[in-house]
Amino acid sequence: MSHATKEFVPLTIAVLTVSDTRSLEEDSSGQLLQDRLTEAGHQLAERVLIPDDIYRLRAEVSRWIADPQVQVVLVTGGTGFTDRDSTPEALLPLFDKQVEGFGELFRQISFNEIGTSTVQSRAVAGIANHTLVFCMPGSTNACRTAWDNIVGEQLDARTRPCNFVPHVTPKDRCESRG
Prior knowledge:
May be involved in the biosynthesis of molybdopterin. Can bind GTP and has low GTPase activity. Can bind MPT, but has no MPT adenylyl transferase activity. Belongs to the MoaB/Mog family. By secondary structure, the chain is α/β, with parallel strands linked by helices. The protein has one domain (12-173): MoaB/Mog-like domain (Molybdenum Cofactor Biosythetic Enzyme, Chain A, 3-Layer(aba) Sandwich). The chain is built from seven helices and six strands; from the N terminus they run βαβαβαβαββααα. It has helices at 28-39, 54-66, 87-91, 100-114, 140-154, 165-168, 171-176, and strands at residues 12-18, 43-50, 72-76, 97-98, 124-128, 131-136. Strands 2-1-3-6-5-4 form a six-stranded mixed sheet, with helices on both faces. A hairpin with a 2-residue loop joins strand 5 (124-128) and strand 6 (131-136). It starts with 11 loop residues before the first strand and ends with a helix.
């Protein structure tokens, strides 16, 4: 049985930027993700910027995971090795299932762009309560790499042989949207 359809299925996606130094107006990474998702035909649920704080990060993403309208959360920032970087630590406990291949593939693709510096990316993804969460580095180029080479295709129901759309659109969630 194929997990792909021939029709595009628009998803409702939230964007979260984790940064201690940027404002929403200066957030080129979050803006790129917002632009990419709307250009692809998806709907922006909300876009938020918060400081790199493990508990605020966990609370914000938990709110979206609990919201039946939000199907995907894109998180940019907090995946490095500074003392304040805590995105993986904040979100991994929330995942019902981790998507190990996302981080692996992101680093493989990034190697062609930034060489061995890619080992300092702790990009992760997972599914929680039928909500797909992608955590990417905070640089605009990293977000572009992730969306253009992985995320965009995996959020497109037409991608074969499989994509994540069936995992974030279970029948009960679709009915709740009316």
